[in-house]
Prior knowledge:
Helix content: 55-70%
Structural class: mainly alpha
Order of helices and strands: HHHHH
Shape: globular
Strand content: under 5%
Distance between the termini: 36 Å
Amino acid sequence: MTALTNKSVKSMGTAEAFYRVFCALPISARLAVARYIIEDEEIQHLLENPNETTLEAFAENKSSMPVFHTVDELRKDLLM
């Protein structure tokens, strides 16, 4: 197994990484995952939202990724 040695790889924060994963999913999976994370109260409780990861994501530079103010805005973007 070889190690990644490319120094030109840009590091990214948690929020941007999750967003890129969403964009890589098929549209049907995007909506299912978004609904599961954002709207399911049991999942919110299980993940203890807000947790350390989400708080760190809120502190990241928002200019490097889109910011959604409503679930509808997120849905619209996930369908693109």
